Amino acid sequence: MPTAVSPADLTTTAPPAGVGRGERVSPRRLRAILSGSVGNLVEWYDWYVFSSFSLYFSASFFPAGDTTAQLLQTAGIFALGFLMRPIGGWMFGRIADKVGRKQSMTLSVLLMSLGSLLIALTPTYQTVGIVAPVMLLTARLLQGLSVGGEYGVSATYLAEMATSRRRGFYSSFLYLTLIGAQLLALGIQLVLQRVLEPTQLLAWGWRIPFVIGALLSVVALYLRHNLDETAAFTAQPETTEDQRGSLRVLARHPRAVFTVVGLTMGGTLAFYTFTTYMLKFLVNTAHMTPEAATNVCFLSLLVFAALQPVFGALSDRIGRRPLLIFFGVGGALGTVPLLTALSQTTSPLAAFGLLLLALVIVSGYSGINVIVKAELFPTDIRALGIGLPHALTVAVFGGTAEYLALWSKGVGHEAYFYWYIAGCIGVSLLVFLGMAETTRTSHLNTDPAADQLA
């Protein structure tokens, strides 16, 4: 079983079509990137299926009441799961920087599968009372711990495995598979909506996707167990081992840490609003049927997923900063009118067009933020440097997005949430305008192994 990969194993010299001049990507490198990406898809599926099916299981875990109140309580648990993400970002980031990327990625998927299995087996509120929401919360906290470490470690792995000319393209696979996880969750929802009656979905059918998630985690565990370690990690000098992944080393990079926070603030809020929350928004605000809303979200996410490598490859040609500024300007100016129009539309086709426009704008962030953050940190602190500030920011802004949206609706001023998103993206835009072009300042360029990977 392979445990480490040398630069010589990953490259040859003849350039095939579609790859940077003087560069050919070996099957072994592609296998490593695809295996890491598939594992990422499975883990994020487990995370997103909670939100996708909350329309059906919220009544099973809370006392009877109006739909918005039950969704609000479920969204609260969704948000609490995000509070574990900074802990996961620290714990798994430290493991990845000190022990290895592969070991950290394998451990995180074990926790995720446990959380999914627990949700699938939890009895209803009508059966066990308060124990039901407590078990649901416990499972979500385990998933939050797992996914908190997933982003930083996967981002590090893909960036270090990518060739220098195609880092944006290959790193975009993280969000490609992350969106693919949402598509898988919605796809399973579409199938279940067609083969089960609504009463069956509400009673027990919602448990099926969580069982599927637990089973898929076995596949992810196998793939990650057989991953190659990155050459950038294995090439580090032995004398730095005790300092790898420590908060003391991270504190030496305050500008990079605050840049990650600024990058993530508006991006994560926009991402979760137009992807995770949008299904509830179309049902609860635009008053579409769950089936119509699921179709709109599924088709728009399908195009959104395809856009990620396009934007990643574009960043390899024109740089990361222009695309971030595109997102910042488009998001700050377009969020309020887009969400206002979506709230008033009754046509699934019109909703699809509006949502797709929003997701094109969001792609300026989602398609390239992984590589931007990886380029900010040296090898010995890269996983923790990406994971911890990202997880903290996502917990504050992404994790509360659904809750604040539903709260705003509950108090009769839903438009407050629209302006809140636009304002956060505006703050991120200021960061984009003030940052350097990371393709020129990338720490990946100075890694001893990174120069040999191209």
Automatic annotation (TrEMBL):
PANTHER family in UniProt: ALPHA-KETOGLUTARATE PERMEASE, PROLINE_BETAINE TRANSPORTER
Segments passing through the bilayer: 71-93, 105-124, 130-153, 173-192, 204-223, 256-280, 292-311, 323-343, 349-372, 384-405, 417-436
UniProt cross-references to SUPFAM superfamilies, sorted A to Z: MFS general substrate transporter
Any one Pfam family match given in the protein's UniProt record, by short name: Sugar_tr
Protein origin, superkingdom: Bacteria
Domain Major facilitator superfamily (MFS) profile span(s) in chain numbering: 32-440
Species, as recorded: Hymenobacter yonginensis
InterPro entries reported for this sequence: H+-coupled_symporters, MFS_dom, MFS_sugar_transport-like, MFS_trans_sf, Sugar_transporter_CS
Protein name: MFS transporter
Gene3D superfamilies xref list: MFS general substrate transporter like domains
Localization per record: Cell membrane
Phylogenetic placement of the source organism: Bacteria, Pseudomonadati, Bacteroidota, Cytophagia, Cytophagales
